[in-house]
Give the backbone structure.
Amino acid sequence: MKTNFVPRVNQLDSIQLDNEITNLLRQQIQNILQVLPPGLFSYLQPEINFVLNSALWNFSIRTHYATFGQQMLSITYEKDQLPSIKLVLHYFLTTVLPYAKENAQFRLTNWSLIQKLVQLAENASVLLNLINFFKFLRSGTRPSLIDCLLCINHRSLDGAKRRTIGYSYMTRELVWAGFMELLGFTIPFVNYHALKRKLRNLLRLETTAHRQDERVELNTDTRCAYCNERVILPHHMGCRHVFCYLCLKGNQLADAGFQCNVCDYRSDTFRKVAVL
């Protein structure tokens, strides 16, 4: 195995890391500049992205011949493959060209010819990136279109060292997934309405005296004894407290021993409140 061999997964991960770093810094800049008027911030968006991309390129490719994502994975470009002219071309393709495209899309919307050219160039870029990706899967080198155009390769700083994989996170995920499946299987068999009622009766220190012959009172200020909202289709279960039809019927269907949550009166039937 060559000492400068770089696995395909490391090269793809470096691109993903670069995108995440760029998005993270862009989000931080947006949080800092959110005090600006919304219209001004949107108008300066291409310049802000250009300055950010230029700073990232300067402190990564120009200084260390590797992006920040590549540095995190101990990958770098071959220095002899990046002379001054290729560095200028790399900066133009990765920073200046995206700025020109974004500037045209934001500020030249009335120029239909330019918009068509930008769209055509973007479609061609997508197609070329797809072709280059299949070529990368075959050869294992130059994962991005820019690397292919400039003919630059990656080199591993760790030689032929294999990538270490930790399984502790995977183990935790498997345990958690098994626990969630167990809960999803057992929870439907538990009648939590009955458990809630039994627990409430167990913790209740005093019981409220009630009489079955108490008159049900219903007026404009009456609230449902269960949901504490304005009563809809008022019903009662034999005590003086009024429930919404759905609240009372739903609780009795879910728990055969449902009791009034105010006076603990229990009944298997319910009746509509008669308005006199």
Confidence is low (pLDDT under 50) at residues 205-211. Residues 30 and 160 are 41 Å apart (CA to CA). The longest helix spans residues 112-139. The beta strands are 75-77, 154-156, 234-236, 243-244, 271-272.
